[in-house]
């Protein structure tokens, strides 16, 4: 073997050892950075994933607290029963209607209010504070406020207002239960959407707006061609967060309509509550919970992928 070949082999060995050493240092550095986060990761797994695994285990069993001696393993029978449960399908539809209705209406109102607050005027700080207030009210308090003070068929403010127009009083929570719930939810979530959109408006480059004005673009053309595309990320983020939180709505339904009349205004969390704590059917309730979690993860993952893709686009 020639001297040059030996030198090349020795150089390759040194390069391999150096690369291995760099990988070891990089791995050690990575663990050094991740180390402080491990307790939080372990805590998150304990309080989220372990209960979910227990829920899956319960969903595979026919367990009713009223019949403790009949705890049997039934496999996927609970999931098959869910597919044939017309009430589950109705409450799932109610969940979609309430969630999308609240998020979309709140987002439209949030955009309008953000556009108004983005303009300087006297008392803008006070107006902004007043508009944020509904989001700071506890859901239980807002539910009582809407059902008693605003929507009461006898002395509610809304019936008083429509009475001035000659319209008869309406029992909103009984006649239009979903509409009543949407009123309370939209009132609560509009400030959140407004803040997100307002942050996007204030982050918009002013020189672009000035250039559009110099080029002769009117307010509507500037909004549709420049401002609205700029706000896309903020709108998508607001819709995603709104869907994740509103789909779990329980307080307003429980306190305003109790899911009635019948199940006309019940959503999935409320129906699961009824099956678990009123019917004591732990197996069925656990199976419904698993289905809701999986559906929420799928929707959230798709929405997050869409949002991340929009952030990767270079402006």
Automatic annotation (TrEMBL):
GO terms for cellular component: plasma membrane. It is found in: Cell membrane. Pfam families: BPD_transp_1. It comes from the Bacteria. The keyword Transmembrane helix applies. Belongs to the binding-protein-dependent transport system permease family. This is Sugar ABC transporter permease. It comes from Promicromonospora citrea.
């Amino acid at each position: 073997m020639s001297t040059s070949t030996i030198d090349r082999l020795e150089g390759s060995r040194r390069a391999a050892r150096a690369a291995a050493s760099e990988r070891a240092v990089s791995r050690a550095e990575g663990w050094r950075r991740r180390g402080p986060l491990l307790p939080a990761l372990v805590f998150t797994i304990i309080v989220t994933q372990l209960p979910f695994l227990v829920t899956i285990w319960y969903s595979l069993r026919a367990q009713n607290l009223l019949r403790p001696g009949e705890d049997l393993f039934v496999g996927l029978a609970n999931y098959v029963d869910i597919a044939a449960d017309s009430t589950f399908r109705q409450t799932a539809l109610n969940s979609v209607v309430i969630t999308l209705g609240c998020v979309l209406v709140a987002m439209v109102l949030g955009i309008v209010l953000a556009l108004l607050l983005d303009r300087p005027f006297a008392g803008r700080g006070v107006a902004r504070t007043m508009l944020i207030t509904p989001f700071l009210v506890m859901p239980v308090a807002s539910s009582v406020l809407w059902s008693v003070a605003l929507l009461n068929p006898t002395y509610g403010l809304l019936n008083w207002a429509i009475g001035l127009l000659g319209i008869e009083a309406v029992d909103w929570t009984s006649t239009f239960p979903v509409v009543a719930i949407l009123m309370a939810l939209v009132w609560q979530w509009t400030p959140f959407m407004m803040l997100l959109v307002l942050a996007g408006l204030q982050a918009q480059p002013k020189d672009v707006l000035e250039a559009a004005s110099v080029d002769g673009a009117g307010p509507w053309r500037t909004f549709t061609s420049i401002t609205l595309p700029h706000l896309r990320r903020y709108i998508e983020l607001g819709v995603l967060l709104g869907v994740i939180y509103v789909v779990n709505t329980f307080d307003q339904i429980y306190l305003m309509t109790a899911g009635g009349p019948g199940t006309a205004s019940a959503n999935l969390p409320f129906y699961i509550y009824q099956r678990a704590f009123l019917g004591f059917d732990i197996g069925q309730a656990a199976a419904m919970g698993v289905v809701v979690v999986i559906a929420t993860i799928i929707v959230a993952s798709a929405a997050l992928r869409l949002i991340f893709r929009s952030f990767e686009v270079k402006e």
